[in-house]
Amino acid sequence: MQNLKTVILHNREIAPGYYRMAILAPGYPQTAKAGQFVMLRVQLQAQPLLRRPFGIFKTGTLPPECSGMPPREFVELVYKVVGSGTELMATLQRGDQVELLGPLGEGFVATEDENPILVGGGIGLVPLFKLAEDLCRQGRKVRLLMGGRTRDDILGITEFERLGVETYVSTDDGSLGEEGLVTAVLERKLAKYPGAQVYACGPTPMLNAVHAICATHSTPLQVSLEALMACGVGACLGCVVPGKEHREDEPDYLCTCRQGPVFDAELLQWPESGGAA
Amino acid sequence: MSQPTPSLAVELAGLALRNPVMPASGTFGYGQEFAPYLDLEKIGAVMTKGISLRPKAGNPTPRIAETSSGMLNAIGLQNVGIDAFIRDKVPYLQTLNTPVIVNFFGNQLHEYIEVAEKLSDIEAVDAVELNISCPNVKQGGIVFGTEPCAAAEVVSGVREKLNKPLIVKLTPNVTDITVMARAVEESGADVISCVNTLTGMAVDIEKQCLHLANGTGGLSGPAIKPVALRMVYQVVRAVSVPVIGIGGIMTAKDALEFLLVGATAVQVGTANLVNPGAMSEIVDGIEQFCRDKGIDDINQWIGSLQE
C-alpha cells in the first residue's frame, strides 16, 4: 500500500462514455491482486474533494522511454463518466499529475474448482480482467458472461478473448450477443457445468440475481461490491454493507474497503426475493 | 547557515504535545488504519473514533455524500464498544510514543460516566474527549451539546469520575457557542474542542430522493472553515481554558489561521480521508512557516492576531 504522487501515461475514450487510463505506478505489477482497487485523487484542490475508488483493470511494465531509464510500471483503470469526478478525469492527459492510494482491499481468491465462470455487468467487467489473467495463467478454462444495456457497455471483449477466455455476450437491447440478461446465460451454464465457481461484479440487481441462481445450484460465489467511499482504508466506515448475521439489534457490518470489495457471497446479507433483476 | 529547528511543542491542560496537530475523531479509525501512510509519532496526538458503553451499529447506508468543497456524513457513531476497544485496540495504542486521546459518548448520563470510569483505568489513554455534539444520533449526543444545563450535568458527572485531562467537543449547531463553552468550562472541562460538523443535507434531483439514508448528516471539509474559524475565535475569547480548533483544516495555512486566532492545537478531519498523509504535510508546513517567519516557538504565534 502506498500513496503515490504520480503521472498519467495515457487516458483515452474506448467506448462512448468509457475511458481507459494508465498511470505510472511503481510496484503495482508485483503487489496488486485481482479484485483490488485504488483511490484516485484527480485534482489537488478542494473540488472535487474526495478521492474516487476504481477497480484495477490491469498492471504491466512498459519499456524505458530512452536508454538508461528504468522500465515504467503502470496500473490501468477503466472508468465510466458518471459525475463531476469522472468528468474531470476524462479531461486529463498524458503527463498530468494525480495521487494514487493503493492497492487496497481484499481481492478475488482463485479457487481450484474445475469450471471458473466469471459474470460481469458493464463497468463490473473491469476487475474481472486481472482475475481472468490469473486463471488462464494457471491453465484453467475460463468462461466469461458479459452483460450490458447496449453493445457500448461490453468492455474489453477482444482482450479477454486474447487471453483465451470463452466469452458469452448478452445485451438488454440485443445490439450485441443475445438479447436479454446475463443471468439467463448463467442459468444455462450452471446447468451444463455443475461444480463451477462463480466470480461476479456488476450492478446490485445483477449481483442479487446471480446470488439467487448460485444459491439454487449450491454454487460457490465471490462478488465484488461497489460502494461510496471517503477514505478507502477502513477509517470512516462510510462504505459498510450488512453481513450475513446483521440485525438491527445485533449489528454485523462489513467494511467494503477493508474486508472487501470482494466477498464470499455467504458472508453477506442478500434480499430474500433474490433481487430485482 | 541552516536555521535552528523551531519548537512546535504545545501544552493542553498538562498534556505535552510535540506539535499542535492531531486527527479529529471519526476520521482516523483507531489509529492503526493510518500507520501504513503516516508516522504516528510525527503528529501531536492520536485521537480514536468515538467509543460508547456498548457496540453501536451506526446508521443505514448511504452514509456519505459529497457536496461543494465538503462532505456529509451520517455514520452514526458505529464503534466496537468500550470492552472490545480495551481488548482489541488498546494493545496497539500502548506501543505508540505519541499521546493517545480517546473520544467517547453515551446515550444517557450514566453511560457517559461508566465509560469515563473505564477509560480512567487505562494507562495508555493520556486524555479523553467528551463528545456531546454528534448530529447523527437520535438519542443523547446533540441534546447534551445544545442545552447548557444538560452539558454542565454530563461534564461535571464525567469530571468527577475521571483522572485524566478532559476535553469537551462542542457542536456548531447552536445559536451562541460561547454560552455552551462557558457552561462546560464552569462544570470542569480542561480543554474545549470546537467545532464538530454542521448539520446539512443533500438531495438528488434525478431520483428525487435524499442522498443520505439518515436524511441529514454532518458537513465537514473546506466548506465549513470560515464558520469554524469564527466560532473558535469567539470561544477563545469567552473562556480561559485552552481551545482546540477544528473545521475544514486541509493545509498548514488553514492550521496556522486557527492557531493565530488563539487555538492551542488543531484537529484535522476530512483531510485525513482525502489524503492519509495530510497531517504529516501540515506539520512540515507549520515548521517551514515558522522558519520563514523567524518564529522559534509556535507559542509565539498562537493567539497573536493583531486587532
TrEMBL record, chain A:
GO biological-process terms attached to the record: 'de novo' UMP biosynthetic process
UniProt KW keywords: 2Fe-2S, Electron transport, FAD, Flavoprotein, Iron, Iron-sulfur, Metal-binding, Pyrimidine biosynthesis, Transport
Residue sites binding [2Fe-2S] cluster per the record: 231, 236, 239, 257
Domain of life: Bacteria
Cofactor: [2Fe-2S] cluster; FAD
Binding site for FAD: 85-86
Pathway: Pyrimidine metabolism; UMP biosynthesis via de novo pathway; orotate from (S)-dihydroorotate (NAD(+) route): step 1/1
Example GO molecular function: oxidoreductase activity
Database matches in Pfam families: DHODB_Fe-S_bind, NAD_binding_1
Cofactor notes: Binds 1 [2Fe-2S] cluster per subunit.
InterPro entries, alphabetized: Cyt_c3_hydrogenase_gsu, Dihydroorotate_DH_ele_sf, Dihydroorotate_DH_Fe-S-bd, Dihydroorotate_DHASE_ETsu, FAD-bd_FR_type, FNR_nucleotide-bd, OxRdtase_FAD/NAD-bd, PyrK_electron_transfer
Segments forming domain FAD-binding FR-type: 1-110
General function of this protein: Responsible for channeling the electrons from the oxidation of dihydroorotate from the FMN redox center in the PyrD type B subunit to the ultimate electron acceptor NAD(+).
Assigned protein family: Belongs to the PyrK family.
Complexes and interactors: Heterotetramer of 2 PyrK and 2 PyrD type B subunits.
The protein's name in its UniProt record: Dihydroorotate dehydrogenase B (NAD(+)), electron transfer subunit
UniProtKB/TrEMBL annotation, chain B:
Chief location category: cytoplasm
Source organism phylogeny: Bacteria, Pseudomonadati, Thermodesulfobacteriota, Desulfuromonadia, Desulfuromonadales
Subcellular localization: Cytoplasm
Reaction(s) this enzyme catalyzes, per UniProt: (S)-dihydroorotate + A = orotate + AH2
Enzyme class per UniProt: oxidoreductase
Enzyme Commission code(s) on record: 1.3.-.-
Keyword Thylakoid set for record: no
Oligomer status and interactors: Heterotetramer of 2 PyrK and 2 PyrD type B subunits.
Encoding gene per record: pyrD
Names of required cofactors: FMN
Transmembrane segments: none
Pathway: Pyrimidine metabolism; UMP biosynthesis via de novo pathway
GO BP term (any one): 'de novo' pyrimidine nucleobase biosynthetic process
SUPFAM superfamilies according to UniProt: FMN-linked oxidoreductases
InterPro entries, sorted: Aldolase_TIM (IPR013785), DHO_dehydrogenase (IPR050074), DHOD_1B (IPR033888), Dihydroorotate_DH_1 (IPR024920), Dihydroorotate_DH_1_2 (IPR012135), Dihydroorotate_DH_cat (IPR005720), Dihydroorotate_DH_CS (IPR001295), Dihydroorotate_DH_I (IPR049622)
Protein name, UniProt field: Dihydroorotate dehydrogenase
Similarity comment text for this entry: Belongs to the dihydroorotate dehydrogenase family. Type 1 subfamily.
UniProt binding sites for substrate: 49, 73-77, 131, 196-197
